[in-house]
Structures are given as structure tokens and as C-alpha cells.
Amino acid sequence: MTAGRFSADVYAHRLRAAAEATAAAGLAGLAITPGYDLRYLIGSRAQTFERLTALVLPAAGEPTVVVPRLELASLKESAATELGLAIRDWVDGDDPYRLVADALGGAPAGPSPRLAVATAVTDSMPALHLLPLADVLGVVPVLATDVLRRLRMIKDAAEIDALRKAGAAIDRVHARVPEFLAPGRTEADVAADIAEAIVAEGHSEVAFIIVGSGPHGADPHHECSDRELRAGDIVVVDIGGPYEPGYNSDSTRTYSIGEPDPEVARRYAVLQRAQRVAVESVRPGVTAEQVDAAARDVLAAEGLADAFVHRTGHGIGLSVHEEPYIVAGNGLRLEEGMAFSVEPGIYFPGQWGARIEDIVIVTADGALPVNNRPHDLVVVAAGPAPAG
After folding, report:
1. Model pTM greater than 0.85?
2. Which of 1, 27, 166, 383 is the most buried (most CB within 10 A)?
3. How far apart are CA 230 and CA 213, in angstroms?
């Protein structure tokens, strides 16, 4: 593996699979601008600017990278050169959209030809590129989501190894969290320490940190604040970030400052069982909504159905949140190689909340968790904050 990306063989396989999926969908080809899809296919971390950069992947033919000449250096970090991809660079005054059309073999023939367009977070090419490209091609553009979604959902061996390393790294951070928790320290103080630990344990950066103490723990998407931790607080810590070559960690554990109230402990034990049952339900052929129901049913049986206010999980990979989504109504059947979180939570507004989250990978006969820290409510001494 080259620093920051996988070997060229990995990307060559992905390009072939993407071209086959494109042909099977009856599409002329893909035009993929910078974002997670481009990174998935050739390892490029190029950014979107007003000048067009695009990987052109025809259903039949060789891939081409269209890139501004002044951005050629950005391709050096990708696998484009090792793969021997054709590079069509252009300068201001040229028509890059015509270069895309040429790479596709000209404007596709047929009564209603289509070009699949994929890009980063929004799953849509920026309009300043989409409109002129559609005009040059004379086609009705469609999203490439359906073409690429299955490829990205089914992790290959290299991706699974990357996710396991990311999971181990965030486990090491959670092992250190108790030393950061003490009455008198603010959530922001704790978050700052965690941020340093995330990078120290090998992540390239911090993607997110949630430190929800006391009533703030009842907000699933609380980040951190100047609230001081107090004895008796329940603290939700949800953390993660990209670990080279860019695959994300994401894990939540819940902590108690001092011994918890017996009713808190009872409810937490139910949550712990719900998370375990959901993980145990994971196997090929089970639907995403069945995994969600496995956690939800345990909580409902103990009168906690209304306290669980979000889906049970989300896919993970180059993006922190991607398909498959483990949620009611999603009849997608799990397949070996899918990776996602299992993270039921319970939330009591104005009081406290708790969540337990592991990333799991679907195996031939079950689930492989990449997080292996204990799931118990971690009790931290309620002593004073450390000096300094």
C-alpha cells in the first residue's frame, strides 16, 4: 500500500467492476468529479474547483482523467499514473466538457442516451459543470449512485483491513477517556484531550467528537460545551476520524462519574442487551430493518421504545455515513463485506442519555466487530479535577 492509498491492483479491480456495472445499467459511462467516489476508484484526493476535473469511465473503452494543467500535480497522489490512465490536461480557454465527450467516444447514440454523474457529498455534480457538460453531450444526466452504491457497500479485503485498523485505533482512544473525565472539567476540556489522542493514535484528523454530559447526553448530536462535569453525571462519548488510507473509525461508549443511580444502571443494562442482540442478529440474508428491529424490540419490551429516537446504524468507509443504513423500512438484505455501525441509544430529555456503538463487518456466518472495548457503563472516580 502506497502512503495514503491502496496498491494500483486494488484500484484496477474497482475500475473494471465500475465499468461492468455501468454497462449492465445501460449507461454510456461515468463522469466522476472529485469526492469519495473518485477517491474510491483511483485514490485521488483532488478537490472540486471552478475548473473541471473528472474521471471519465466509458462502459466500453479505456478510462481517461480530464484535469486542468495547473492541477496535474494533484494526480501524483492518486493511482492514475501507475494504472496507466490516459490524461487529458487542459488550459484556460479550452473546452474540458468536449474532452469528456471525446473520452466517451463522442455524444452517445440512441433515442435517450444517459450519462451517469457522480461526485462527493451531495451525490450530484456541481451545476457549473453539470449544465455545460449536459449541453455538450446532448444527454439526460442521471446520478451514478445506483451504479457505484453496491461496489462501495461491499468492502474488499483491503478496506476491511483498513476499517479494522481504524477501529483498533479509536479503541485505544476510548481506553484513555477515563483519565480525561473529572468533576470541574468542561466538556470542551475533555474534547480537546480526546482530539489530541485521536491524532496521537494514528488518525490523520478528527472527524467529530461528542462529549455529552448529564442532560446534554440526551441530545444524540450534541457536540461539546462549557458545561462542567459533575459527580453523578452520565457522559456519552462518540468519537471518530479517518485513518490512512482514509477509512473512518466511529465508536461510542458511555461513562458514569461515580457510581450510577440504580435506575440508570438498570436502564443501561437493557441498552447493553439491545446492542448485543442487534449485533448477534447480523448475518447475510438478514435485512437492515431486521437488525434495527432486533435492538428496538429489546428496548420496547422494557418500556424504553420512546427513548430510542434514531436509526440503529449507518454504513461507514471513506465517508463516516454511507450505505447501508440500518433503519426501519430498509429491506436491503445484508451481504458479506458490508460494514456499518450498530448503535442503539436511550435518551431522557433534561436528564441523561446513553449510547453503545460498534462498527461491524458482515461475515459469511455473522458479524465481525472492529471495536472491542467493554460495553459496560464505565464508572470513573468522582474525585476532583487533576491539577493544571
Report:
1. yes
2. 166
3. 8
Q: Number of C-alpha atoms within 13 angstroms, CB side, residue 204?
A: 11
* Among the listed residues 274, 254, 275, the one whose alpha carbon sits nearest the alpha carbon of residue 264: 254
**pLDDT tens across 14-44, in order?**
999 999 999 888 888 899 999 899 999 999 9
What's the grid cell of residue 281?
A: 442478529
Measured CA to CA, the distance from residue 195 to residue 250 in angstroms comes to 13
* Number of C-beta neighbours around residue 140 at 10 A: 10
* Spatial distance between the Cα atoms of 301 and 291, rounded to a whole number of angstroms: 16
Rounded-to-integer distance, Cα 341 and Cα 334, Å: 13
Which spans in the chain are helix H? Answer: 8-24, 36-42, 80-83, 96-103, 127-137, 145-153, 157-180, 187-200, 262-281, 288-301
Alpha-carbon distance 97 to 198, whole Å? Answer: 42
Residues contacting residue 79 through CB under 8 Å, at least 6 positions apart: 2, 5, 6, 7, 8, 11, 42, 43, 44
- What mean pLDDT comes out for the span 299-323? 98
Measure the CA–CA gap between 213 and 232, rounded to whole angstroms.
10
Burial class, 201, CB count within 10 angstroms (exposed 0-12 / middle 13-18 / buried 19+): buried
- Cα–Cα distance for residue pair 114/15, rounded to 1 Å: 19
Q: What is the secondary structure of 152-186 as a DSSP string?
A: HHB--HHHHHHHHHHHHHHHHHHHHHHHH--TT-B
What is the grid cell recorded at 233? Answer: 453525571
CA-closest candidate to residue 358, choices 269, 249, 271, 277 = 249
Collapsed DSSP state (helix, strand, coil) of residue 140? strand
Q: Which of 170, 94, 163, 160 is nearest to 132 (CA)?
A: 94
CA distance 170 to 176: 10
